[in-house]
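Format is sequence with structure; example below:
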Amino acid sequence: MSGIDLFTLNFFPVIGIGFLIIFLWKNSNMEKKLKRLFYNLAVFIVIEDILYNIELILPYTDCSRELMTLVTALGYVLRPLLLYSFIMIVIRQDNRKRIRLPLLLPSVVCALSSFSAFFTDIAYYYDDMKVFHRGALGWTPHVVMIVYLVAMTVLSFTHKSQTNKFERTLVLEITMILIVAAFAESVFGNIYVLRTATTAVLIFYYMFFQSQLYKDEIIEEQKRKIEMEANFSLQIVKTLAETVDAKDPYTKGHSYRVAEYSREIARRMGKDEAFLRRIYYMGMLHDVGKIGVSDNIINKKDGLTIDEYESVKSHTVIGEEVLRHITAMPELYYGARWHHERFDGRGYPDGLKGDEIPIEVRIISVADMFDAMTSTRSYRDPLPMNEVRTELENARGTQVDPEIADIMMKMIDEAIS
């Protein structure tokens, strides 16, 4: 095959890289630093390929041996820089000079070996017929390439914070492909396999990053939607709770405080985020049934009649009816229906006892009791903390769950100390 034929054949990778550069240019989603690293790699491949093709046609011209040596040396120097750029993508977030600078050392060795051809034949030389001959150190560029390929694989596994398992496997496969291609070029004289392989794996690696970006965009969009829905739901819950609290000026903010206390107790019990979110909503809406109770009864300062008391008690059932059909959180009505149940079974509306009462409700009951004692009411001022603690102590095992009461008392002790 003539040099001109090989010239044509070796420009196929340049076409592929040209398309890649256009894709990079049009890509507005990829991080600028990562895009720049891909640009560097693509440009190095194009320049190295152009130099090699110039090297192919120079023997058919009247050029000097020095010019051929220069072109060959530049080509040898660019190859390790190409792989160095590949490694920079693998460790893209690591800016430590103690890692990056030593990686340039093989490139320096390769450059010294390549340009030594101007002074000695130990690396390579061109004879009077412009035929290439390899010297004792002629394999240096190929050894340097192997060093870089191994380094790229090792760094992909040691920089796990930058790479995921799939990418590390991908880098290992790329390394093996390039090693085989380099071996084919060096041993069998197949002088265009490595360029084609390098172009192919670069494009494939770029497509991998594109797929990752697309996946990340989908995940981020889903997160945004979930966050918007959660915020919207919280706003509705808060608005509903504020509407209930507004019926009684003395209990303004009661629902919010009960929700906060309940969440803190649950957090101290080691509950997960889903539980904390659920109990917060339950605490906010535990009194929602008071919407169906007359304002005159809720704000009455004198004692309630039997019928008025039954009307107040009905807020538990009304609250369940309001919340039961919210399918997004089917347990939401628990707090509204059962927050007046007692641990000893003498509460209402169902007389549940002990563990029959859902854990969320047992927590809310303690928080509700605490806030009732520490808030201003129409019939009394807030109780001192020592009295609140005493009341909780007396309520352990009768009105409230003793374990949860202990957590609340510990919170009181921490606030007092």
The longest helix spans residues 193-245.
